[in-house]
Structures are given as C-alpha cells and as structure tokens.
C-alpha cells in the first residue's frame, strides 16, 4: 500500500503523482494532539475540537511534507462546484493556533469553494475530508496543481470536471496531460442514499447512472469513486489512480462522518508544487 510513516503520522500518497514529482499527502488520523472523539490529527475547525489543537495538527502535517505552515492556503468548503485560483499568498496568511478556527474573524474572508488550483510553487493547497472524495490533480507539463472536494453534491455537480476545466482555462493545461488521484473516501457499500440523491444522480449522469448507482431491496447506494472516475474521463483525463481506501471501513485510519455518526474529525489532503531552486 502507498503509505509513508513519519513521527507517528500515516500519510497516503499516489504513486503516479509521487513519481511525477508532486509534493502531496492525504493524512490519516494518527500523529496529532486532538482528544477523543477527534483523535488525533483532526484538521476540522467546526466539529467541536479546540482551535489550538486544529492549528497544531495543520502545522504538523505541513512540516511532515517539508512545507512551511505559512504557505498553506485553504477555502471555506460548502459542497458546491466553485474553483478558487491561488496566485499569491495573502499578506496575512499564517496557520497559527487561531487561524484554524474557520468561524474566527481571521477566516471569514476566505473564499467559498470546493476546489483550489495554483501554479505558484510557494503555495501549499489543503482541503479537509471525512467521507467526501479528495481528488488531486497535477499537470506536470504546465506545472499546475489542484484539489477538489467531492461529496454527493460536488460529484453530481461535477466539481472534478470543473477543476480540470479551470486548469485548462487558467493555466493552458491539456487534460490528457493531467494526472489524477481519487483519494480515501466512503465506498459504495457504506454509502446508502435517499430518493432525492438518486434523482439528482440520474439527472446528472443519465444513462451512465446505472454504473454509479447500486439498487436493490428498496435501497440505493451511490458509488462516489466510480462517479468521479467517469467524470474525469469525460473531462479528458486519462491518467487516474484510485486509492480504494474506504473511510467507513477503516475507522482506525480515517475520520468518517457516516461511520462515526457525525461525531468525528476531518483528515487533510495537501498538495504543492516543488519549490524552485534558483540558486546557481
């Protein structure tokens, strides 16, 4: 399995993205300072954990990837399909203990988005998850990177495809060059959905909905992995790696909103371009 172990932390990485040179990791729940039920590397700021714990956990995760915490850039995730472009680091951008509290005055100016992209090697992108799908995208030709957050709404709204489109529009990326990783998230066996979601999926995927919905005995299950894979393929992405890590099945590793009945934390996905070395 593609995991790294460092200072009690467990970090999942994608082999294709690693070989291509992307600095990235999806952090399991070990190696942090948060108490139960958020133990221990919780990075969710609106789940009841102390802001000081969340801030320390984010700092630890950044440093384990050898990135400065002051370069971390996030957004207010709202289960939509907006894509935020990062050109430069905000002047006041620091992950301090108070910054992690997204309800704090320091955080209220953050843009609402469910995907974030950049060509700036000094920026370190991060997003938080607990069953929703982390989609990491990297164009090694144009040196552009993105992360998308795809829950059922984001998946239906094709946030992964919107991110690919913006990589193309903003940075001239060719989708055929983009490499993708579909990260740890809830699998179809544990993701039962109601009729409202079923109707939305059928509307969004049309005839292909038979490949992403499993139905029987009056129950319906949504396959977020396959739905996002098909969305990426239709967007022109050909290089896709699946983690096949189910958050609800491996509570010892991952935070799971469904598996822990809402009383849980958020794990973090981080991605950044290698910092240029301009020294002679």
Give a description of the structure.
This protein is of the alpha+beta class. 21% of the residues lie in helices and 24% in strands. It has helices at 15-20, 51-64, 152-156, 159-171, 195-205, 224-234, and strands at residues 3-6, 9-12, 23-27, 72-73, 83-86, 115-118, 124-129, 133-139, 144-150, 179-182, 192-193, 213-216, 219-222, 239-242, 267-272. The strands form three sheets. A six-stranded mixed sheet has the order 1-2-3-15-7-4, with helices on one face. The chain is globular and about 50 Å long. It starts with a strand and ends in an 8-residue tail after the last strand.
Short description:
With 280 residues, this protein is α+β, with helices and mostly antiparallel strands.
Helix content: 10-25%
Question: Spans with pLDDT under 50 lasting ≥5 residues?
Answer: 96-106
Structural class: alpha+beta
The strand line-up of the biggest sheet is 1-2-3-15-7-4
First-last Cα distance = 38 Å
Helix count from the secondary structure assignment: 6
Tell me the strand percentage band: 15-25%
Main sheet: strands, sense, barrel: 6 strands, mixed
- Overall pLDDT metric: 92
Shape: globular
Oligomerization state: single chain
Sketch the topology as an H/E string, one letter per element: EEHEHEEEEEEHHEEHEEHEE
Radius of gyration: 18 Å
Q: Quick one: how many beta strands?
A: 15
Please give a handful of descriptors for the protein shown.
6-stranded mixed beta sheet; single chain; 6 helices; 280 residues; alpha+beta; 24% strand
């Amino acid at each position: 399995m593609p995991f790294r172990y460092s200072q009690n932390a467990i970090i999942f990485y994608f082999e294709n993205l690693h070989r291509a040179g992307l600095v990235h990791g999806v952090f399991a729940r070990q190696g942090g300072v948060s108490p139960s039920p958020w133990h221990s590397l919780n990075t969710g700021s609106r789940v009841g954990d102390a802001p000081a714990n969340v801030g320390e956990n984010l700092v630890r995760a950044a440093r384990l990837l050898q990135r400065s915490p002051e370069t971390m850039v996030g957004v207010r995730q709202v289960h939509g399909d907006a894509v935020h472009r990062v050109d430069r680091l905000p002047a006041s951008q620091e992950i301090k203990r108070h910054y992690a509290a997204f309800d704090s005055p320091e955080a209220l100016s953050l843009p609402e988005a469910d995907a974030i992209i950049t060509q700036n090697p000094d920026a370190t992108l991060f997003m938080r998850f607990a069953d929703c799908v982390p989609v990491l995208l990297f164009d090694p030709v144009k040196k552009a990177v993105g992360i998308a957050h795809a829950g059922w709404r984001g998946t239906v709204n094709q946030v992964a495809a919107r991110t690919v489109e913006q990589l193309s529009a903003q940075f001239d990326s060719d989708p055929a060059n983009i490499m993708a990783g579909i990260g740890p998230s809830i699998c179809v066996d544990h993701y039962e959905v109601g009729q409202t979601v079923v109707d939305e999926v059928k509307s969004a995927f049309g005839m292909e909905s038979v490949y992403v919905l499993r139905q029987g005995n009056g129950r319906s299950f949504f396959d977020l992995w396959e739905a996002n894979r098909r969305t990426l393929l239709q967007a022109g992405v050909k290089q896709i790696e699946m983690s096949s890590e189910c958050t609800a099945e491996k509570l010892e590793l991952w935070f799971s909103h469904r598996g822990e009945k809402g009383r849980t934390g958020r794990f973090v996905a981080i991605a950044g371009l290698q910092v240029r070395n301009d020294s002679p």
